[in-house]
Amino acid sequence: MSPTSNALLWLLLGVSLFFVTFGEYAIFIGLCGLAFLAGTLVIIYNFGKQATELDMPEISLVVGQLGHGGIEKVKSAMEPTTKIKNFDKRMTGASVIDDVLKEVLQFAVKDYIKTWYRQISDHDSFLVDIWQCVQKVIITFSNRSKEIDWMPYFTQQLVDDFASHIRLYRRAAEKTGTAKTEDNAIALENAFFDMEVEMENNMCRDLVCLDPQAERQYLQDLSEVLLYLLLPKEDFHNKPFRYIVREVLVNGIFMPTIDLLSDPDYINQYIVWMCYETSFTRETFLTVIRCSDCMEELEAVKEMVDSDIAKWRSKDTGGSDDTTIKQNLNSLMFLKNACEMRMRRLKSGPVSADQIIEPENLRNLYVLSLDEIFSNNFALQSFIEYVTSRNGQQYLYFYLNVEGFRAAAEQQISEMQKQSLTSVTSLEPDLEPLRNAAKIIFDQYLSEKATSRLKIEPEFIKDAVQKLKSKMLSEDTFDLVQARVYQILHMSYYEDFLQSTSYQKLLGELGLNSTSAKAEEGDNLSYRSIEDVPRIVWCKTEDLLDPQLEDIGSDTVSIGSGSSATSVGSPSADAYMQVTVTNSGVLTEKNGKSYAIFFITVKKKDPYSEQEDGWDVYRRYSDFHDLHMILTEKFPELVIPSLPSKTIVKNMSESFLEKRRKDLDKYLRYLMKPDLIQNVSGLEDLMNHFLHNSVWEKHKSEFSRKMDTIVHPLKKGIGDGLGKVFTQRNIDQSKSREIMNQMKVGAGLDPEAGENIPLRIMLLMMDEVFDLRHKNQWLRRRIVAILRQLIKATFGDKINRKIVEHVDLMTSAEQMAEYILAFKNSFWPNGVLAEPRQPRDEATKMRTKVLCKAKMLGSVPDEVRTLMGTDAVRMGVARVFQMFQHKTLNKRILYVVLEGVLVTLFPDNKFQAIFRKLHSRSKRAEKVLEAQKAGTSQDSQLRKRQLKR
């Protein structure tokens, strides 16, 4: 049978069974099923007809544009438009950052993209592509940031850049004066950028700071480089997309952000927000008012005071609050009088110091003795400046240097006496370093050929000569001469100093001038006694002989006893090698030359050996130094700890040798680490050779030969530097200061200060903010010694760790999330785009400036005021504040920070050369380069002429 007949038979069978089963109801059920089917078909027909009528115009348009070959494109156009592909939305790898960052991106897409895109299309694929592109950029940026160690930048380069910026501003202000006029501001900015060319080695940022078009071009070029590094390749090679993104970055992000951050009013508000509320005190506010030289500031404050006076007077109706209201009114009236007094002073013109100090006030001055002046840093600075103005500084420098010599001699002779008592063999004390120092003082001040010869009686000089020639040099070598110099200082300079305006100013700085309390009406100043000011800390022998010497531990071991130093090496069950620097001593040769030696105990057990071998080796410090040079040359990739620094003059004291023994023991302990020995090929053989019981042959490596050309001249310079510790050399001082001024601040730091983060930061800020480097070099060394002792007393290593921990916290994922969250809350408070900032009136800006100066001045610790002096602190704070009032200069430091971050972030992409090329468009830089080329061509012509001759 055919399939058709079979189907009919099955159909008839089904119908028959249906009627048999349902009987008379079969017809009714059948009619219901047919009605349901018909209704379904009608609904489908009507829905399809309506959809066709709506989509037909678009489909006809697409078909008309594409022609007969657009079937596939028509098909894709008819697909659902709301379909979004699923993709991985992770970006930085830290969920705490990703969550906040996604919210920011969502808000940005909603308010900056969808507002115009939804007017064009409802298709979401463009939004998805934008999201994926931003996600890839963030992933690339975050991966790059994770590989960077930000510690050197934040603790060294950033501080150095900011301090150098202050130096440029200070020099420009000194050159152009302090007048607050528009022409003076332009002259100051021109002088600033002229000096930047010298400091930055023929690179100047004047165009990007002064010319908006040049700034836009610079940011466009920089954006092109960043897009090349961060964008995916397919997006970067899409030129229309790249140009759009570049313009959005430049005109929508970079320029508005830089314009905002460089606005002086914004910086003032930010400083006010950063400073603690407790930093704003009555004293600092009145100080700012009385020292203000801006009439607009005083008028703005007076306007607000008048408004407050009117409000309080409206409430002065008696009652229980009458006392409080009168007190507030009295305070406001006092402030108003202070403003009016300062305004009258400004209108009357500049006032000299002689006019400010009234002669009758000199009768009530507090008298400081000469010894009190010598023992106080700030008083000594004032006295030095006064004596220098009268060309008598050689007497004062001689007195101070003899004090330093006596302190060093007492300590060193005492150490030598202890050493001679504890030593088994009788050793003659080595007084040659002290004798050389004494000769330097004599040659500088007392000899007939002295450049700063003192005019004193010959019998005093003869006494000093006899003591210098004696075999046993003592600390009283210059006592008679110093006593005579003290008399000269007292009679010729000290008594006149007490009658000078400088002394009146000094007492005001120390809070000892009773008349200063009555200089202004109703002003109560807080006094400090002279004992509250820190005394001068005379340097110790270790500081004189080795400035980089610092104690590592508190425990000391005598030279003659064995040390309990920790064993060094790689012990194991089968084989080990233990190395310990156990002792130190002084060896004297037949010719009288002595040097320190260090005893090394070595214990070694070879594999599969039951017996332990042991021997002692003695090495000099120079042997360790030679080993260190070989390690540095042979294993440049190896991180080697720093070797204990060399001393300028021999130091054989017990404490110094014990400290050096500990340092060398730690040095060997690091080199003998098991993992280091196993992973560094050739290190074990070199260490075995160094620790073998034989004479260590000096290895004049290539590294040392190269360094000899630098070390030998430096030795002479360092020797002269030792003389500077005892003598104040003024030869070519102004020239050397000018050279240092043209360099970046970090270039003039001592090596020790560069390694110690807190001291480095303090010196950088102190030198440029308070201008201490250019006031008096002797006083600066004293304050540096005080800072070093303060840091040492307050656990400098812990301060360093705190700084490291703070930088780690600043760059941690949690803190980054906080930054992004703060950005989101400021731009989208409660999820709504913030309204544009309302412009602030000039009076409000002026009052913000006054508040900013008051809070900055109040934020300076009292210890710094006491150490530096109130007037120096006030001028330093005023210098920093005035620097921030120049928008052009603020732009410059922002660009310096931006460039430093990019150089740190992309160390392998030659950003330094890129920036130098971008800033070479400056006419200032071009002039310098042309002058250098002209000078080079002249030199070459002169050489050719000489060769022809």
From TrEMBL:
A Pfam family reported for this protein in Swiss-Prot or TrEMBL = RGS
Q: Which part of the chain is the PX domain?
A: 576-697
Occurrences of domain PXA (ranges): 94-279
**Can you name one GO molecular function term for this protein?**
phosphatidylinositol binding
Residue stretches spanning the membrane: none
Q: Which residues form the RGS domain?
A: 369-507
Mind telling me which SUPFAM superfamilies this protein's record contains? PX domain, Regulator of G-protein signaling, RGS
Where is region (Disordered) located? Answer: 929-949
Q: Name one GO cellular component term.
A: early endosome
* Similarity field: Belongs to the sorting nexin family.
The name of this protein is Sorting nexin-13-like isoform X2
Task: Report the source organism.
Answer: Biomphalaria glabrata
